[in-house]
Amino acid sequence: MNKEWVKETMAGRFPSQWLDELRARADIVSVVGSYVTLKKNGHRYVGLCPFHNEKSPSFHVDEQKQLYHCFGCKAGGSVIQFVMEMEHLSFPEAVAHLAEQLHMPLPEMQHDPAYEQRRSLKERIFLANKAAARLYHQHLWQPEGESILSYLKNRGLSDAVIRRFGIGAAPERPNICKTLMDEGFTEDELRQAGLMLTRDGRSFDMFRNRAMFPIIDAYGNVLGFGGRAMGDAKPKYLNTSDTPAFNKRLGVFAANLLRKARGLKRVILVEGYMDVVALSQYGIEGVAATLGTALTPEQARLLNRFAPQVLLAYDGDSAGQNAILRGLDVLEEANVPARVLVFPGGLDPDEFIRQEGIEAFHQLKPVSAVEYRMQREKEKYDMSLEEGRVQYAKACADILRKVREPVELDSHLKRLALETGIEKTVLMEQIGLRPAGQHTPSAPRETFTRKANRPRATDPQTDQAAHTLLAVLATGRLPKDIVTPEEFEDEHLRALCEALLGGSSPAALMEQQPDDQSRAALSGIMAIDTRVDDEGLRKMAGDCLNKLRRQRLEAELQRVEASLPTLPEAERAKETYRAFLLTEQLKQFK
From 153, 191, 221, 438, which residue has the greatest number of CB atoms within 10 Å? Predict the structure, then answer.
């Protein structure tokens, strides 16, 4: 994720000056305070960390540097990075989210005269959908929704889960759009929202005699609806078409609940709304469904923000199983780890959990993508015939050719050898691998113990002085020219100093770190306590500079003294005098 931050910011998608303005207007204390209860402590605010469980607060928000840092789990970053973590967003999405909250046009929109019109229409569609969802839900509990409520009850849904998902009813003779127009929405807004259709000069409600499932995004906006037909009406499920506020390729059903579920280890992806609702009723968190389309790359990346792995739990019929194969391809292309839940007897998740119960669901063992593909290939061939076993082995070889982990590959090969009767060495050759002992000798690899490859040992005191000096510099309150990049021997710290002197803010530097380790290290530096007045800051900087300069002189003196015995007499005299000068310089620091 951090690499993506760097890629997006360094690519210039968002000008640095514009990002500085966004951070300043967002105000990290206000943003973090909407998620975490904060108490002021000096120029910092303290609270319980939202990223790990703790009883004593170790999470700090620095109003001056506009950064957050947890002394427990080492999480840290800017206001944009905080939104990324809390909302499971990419860098550009977090920027767009903050900009929208602040009514701040994105750079490419600043000179677009139609931007405000589009933004206003999108907000009106959200409001219309929210009002419609309220009306549909009210109808469900009234006489006109009795048959739809009965259908939901027969499917085993409780009142609590119906309310949790905001499920509603579009009556046989609906008046939703008329009611919405009475509330101030125009026909054009309702058509744009996908709630109203116009044919032959007549306008009428889009959804009639259907159980209504609101499609809600991670921020709580009602994007559209999925309507399940009663009786034999077609189509069985009718979904809101794409609108200025909704693109079915980009979202998933129950994204709002995914966002609320903290610490998910996997997202279970199912096919239908009822599957999500049924599993949720049984207490299973982290369930979502696609919105009437095959899984898209955008949905795969979205799911990966909520959890590190996706379990495909599609229906047990042939259509569902084929959709799993396509879904695995999409997830692998998006570099999202995936496994498969296979339901016996061709059942879908809703049917299985209602028939077998929660314990049986938990006993289902997810299978790897490779294992699932091999199982599907096995169904195509008659394994009682040698020809079938050979064709099966060839098909599996194509699958196993993509496996990169040697241990995993060996396990699959052993099983395939047992299933087909074909020797493992032959299967390896079919894949294109040479069995052990037959490889071509290669040149000896360079040893890792060479001194040149070892990292430079650093003095903890030197590191602390350098880190503190950077933290003081980051306050922006030091007089000019007190600190120069040459004071830092470490190249990374020198580059950070140059960036701060060049006008980069601490928050911007946090967003530019290439990986989590670098980000945590910089966050720790920026969290060093600098709560003193200007005179105190100058003294802190002076102490650090003296320590760094003294340690440089001591290190240089040690190098000179160590070299003296090996030098020719003429050069030894010169270096001896140099050692004397270094000693005199050191006396100034004592």
Answer: 221
Q: Supply the CATH classification number for the domain 115-246.
A: 3.90.980.10
Starting at the edge strand found earlier in the chain, the sheet holding 338-340 runs: 287-289, 267-270, 310-312, 338-340, 367-368
DSSP state of 243: B
Whole-angstrom distance, CA of residue 548 vs CA of residue 553? 9
- Say whether pLDDT at 517 is over 80: yes
| Mean pLDDT confidence for 540-558 | 87
Contact by Cβ (8 Å): 139, 169: yes
Residue 573 has pLDDT above 90, yes or no: no
pLDDT tens digits along 200-229? 888 899 999 999 999 999 888 999 999 999
The class of domain 2-109 in CATH terms is alpha beta
Single out the residue of 157, 166, 100 nearest to residue 131, CA to CA: 166
Q: Rounded CA gap, 407 and 309, in Å? A: 21
Question: What is the rounded CA–CA span in Å between residue 233 and residue 128?
Answer: 26
Q: Answer yes or no: is pLDDT of 507 > 50.
A: yes
Q: Are 228 and 236 in contact (CB under 8 A)?
A: yes
The CATH code that applies to domain 458-587 is 1.10.860.10
Structure token digits, residue 260: 């609320």
Residue 27: φ, ψ to 5°: 60, 105
- Show contacts of 548-551: CB within 8 Å, 24+ apart: 548/462, 548/465, 548/466, 548/469, 548/487, 548/488, 549/487, 549/589, 550/586, 550/589, 551/459, 551/461, 551/462, 551/465
Average pLDDT, the chain: 87
Backbone angles phi, psi at 279, to 5 degrees: -65, -40
DSSP 439: S
Cis ω before 235 (30° cut-off from 0): yes
Give the class (CATH, top level) of 266-365: alpha beta
SS3 percent helix, strand, coil of the chain, rounded to 5, is 55, 10, 35
Question: How many alpha carbons lie under 13 Å from residue 1 in its C-beta half-sphere?
Answer: 25
* CB distance 88 to 218 below 8 Å: yes
Here the tokens at position 34 are 């909407």
Within its chain, how far is the Cα of 232 from the centroid?
A: 41
CA distance 472 to 463: 14
Question: Cα–Cα distance between 233 and 154 in angstroms, integer?
Answer: 19
CB atoms within 10 A of CB 62: 25
Mean pLDDT of all residues in 523-550: 90
